[in-house]
Amino acid sequence: MSSHPTRRAVMAGGAATAAAIGLTGCLQNPDSGSSGSSGAQRYELGTTKGNGTVSILGAFGGQEQTAFLASLEEFQKSSGITIQYTPDQDFTTTIQQRVGSGDAPDIALFPQPGGLFDLAKKDAIVPIDVFLDYDKLNSTLIPGFLDSARMQGRVFGAPMRMACKSLIWYPKEAYTAGGYSEEPATMEDLYGIADQIKQQMGITPWSDAWESDQATGWVGTDWLEEFMLRLYGPEVYDDWIYHRIPFNDPQVVAALDKVGELLKTEGNVLGGTSTILNTAFSEAPLPLFENPARAMLVRQGNFVTGFFPPEVLKNIDTQVGVYPMPTFADGYEGQPILGGGDLAALFTLNDDTVKVMEFLTSDQFGAEWAKAGGWLSPHKTFDQSHYADETTRRIAQIAAEAKVFRYDGSDVMPNAVGGGTFWTGMVEWLQGSKTSQQVCDDIEASWPK
């Protein structure tokens, strides 16, 4: 889960794009680790001058818009380029309509890769290897991020913001007083900590909540995605979310059963399965901060801090602890991170738009947004001193040290699945009305042909 003015005409096709910049043959992103000389010829600055204004369409407004624009002020002064940003809460629909009517923005910021892929299939987006130094960009990003915007060998968007989901939160004072490990190496170690909490404190170790109006169930999809990534690694995970293996593959069913061992075992989660389903997802962390705490562990993304009580937020570094959700002892070797992020994609190719894309997708962008809070850079090389508190720096460090990043799978799957049957299937599974096998069979049957 998450998640315009005078301009040159939209590049309306792969052939048109190649012709416009004097390219021949098929451009191809360099494979990771290659020299970068895979035959892809990049756009040269000076080929097509812009008009001094670049339009950007995105999904975020309010305080996020303010912080975003603040992060662009110095660039606009030094470059002489005026950026006109338009927020749209119905971004997913609006971007499709505008591209379809020949009124695409110069740049769009996609909160999920699904819509990006839809337009890339229509040859509406300029692949990033045409105008960015792919290898240089890839070297500063958390490993695996560009794979999230890859389709048929090309990458069509580059991240300018990251969400980090694979986090375990705990109330620092009560947790450390209990002597529990703040760096569990494996999921088995984490299960051991949960058992200690049960025995020593006499409370359920976990708090979890899935209720989210029409989107109820998305929290459950994250649990399965986390386990798929940790049990089998990124290759099998990719095969699953891109439907190269069926949704009801035995590995998926086994992973869902494994999630059930944690969430459905009596005494593991506060209130049991009915409370999980009937409690707003935003309320999951609240029992951790009661006195005394009624639970000690919550698995949720970095955005969950927005739902912490005000007095906790005011003293977040002393009140809250966080560590990465570990992997299984016999699972993937290394720390994976499940997450999301906004992907910047280019529709209009000229000197001005390229300069804006170079800045937006670099580790130099975002200092002002980082200081304002609520933003993470996807670059492991970003200066972490810009973050407003030690907790955010800790999360950024967790992400920077990850072996691999993977996008939230439901955001990549067709919307009928990722925003439909996957959500409802997880609810039926947690209710106990359907088994892991039955739910996976139903979701597989719902996959668009």
Automatic annotation (TrEMBL):
Pfam families with a match to the protein in the record: SBP_bac_1 (PF01547)
InterPro entries per record: Bact_solute-bd_prot1, SBP, TAT_signal
Keyword Ligase: no
Database matches in SUPFAM superfamilies: Periplasmic binding protein-like II (SSF53850)
Record keywords: Transport
Family, as annotated: Belongs to the bacterial solute-binding protein 1 family.
PANTHER family named among the record's database cross-references: ARABINOSE-BINDING PROTEIN-RELATED, OSMOPROTECTIVE COMPOUNDS-BINDING PROTEIN GGTB
Name of this chain's protein: Alpha-glucosides-binding periplasmic protein AglE
Organism: Brachybacterium nesterenkovii
